[in-house]
Specification:
Alpha-D-Glucose-1,6-Bisphosphate, Chain A, domain 4; about 300 residues; alpha+beta
Amino acid sequence: MAFSRNRIRLKVKCDVDALKVWDTVTNPIRLAIWFCNSAEINPKLRGTVKFSGNNCVARTFEEQEIKGVITALEPNRLLKFTWPLNGSASEVTWRLDDMGRYTDFLVTHEKLPPGAGMMDAWHIYLYNLQALLHTNRPVYRCDYNRIDKGTIKREVFIETVHQPVYKALTRQKELRRWFSETAEVEAPLQPGSKYSAGWVNAEGNSHGPQEIKEAVENKKLIYSWKDEAHQAGDTVSWELTRIGERTRVNLRHTGFPDGMPQKDYMQGWHSYILLLKDYCENGGQLTTKIIEKGTGE
């Protein structure tokens, strides 16, 4: 299979029939719950789409909203529309595969401009789409009108006790399933132990997580973080609090210059905390699968 450098593809498993998925991705009222705040769609070939609002990632690009045209349509099966994005004529395809007892929903976003950062946005969208289909409400939408500055803060409740969550954060085998396929964790967990995602830039320099600063079993994990954009020492902390049969997870990423908007990090951590929730609530498996990852994503 030939991969495109400016295309991403993701698939999410939905435990409902294809008709319900189709309604959720074409009904303006339901689109405004998981994908945007205001939706207009004319579901016919050459029909127009318009998506906007604070929960729509388009708000962070120069166009401020999605105004596109439907270029392919197969009712209950496929919808393709244009999405002008930072001056590029990107295209999105939503495809439904009826698997009998469930439906696979495949998203392809192609002709992306460099640095679009859409992988994290689609992770967030697909998790909330899945939640809407299964529980009739989204879980945790990203507000692009309130870009974090100085410190990234995220909180989520995970429907399991805290031990599996702590293991997902600290065991190399588990980290590689939901966070980074190249993650490395040095045992024992103590200050100075290596904690890495295995990420390197074009020059071969490491970035992202670096080493553990503090680890308290089932309660807390703190590690240093190297950011390529500035020289300050960053710190990422995870705090776990068991509340009955649930776990409250508080994430903090500090060390950014004061007042500096952090859209990519805010969106990225929002995506990762939902991936952690998905992983822990589904027995160590992700319901969203990356099929293809473009350059820069």
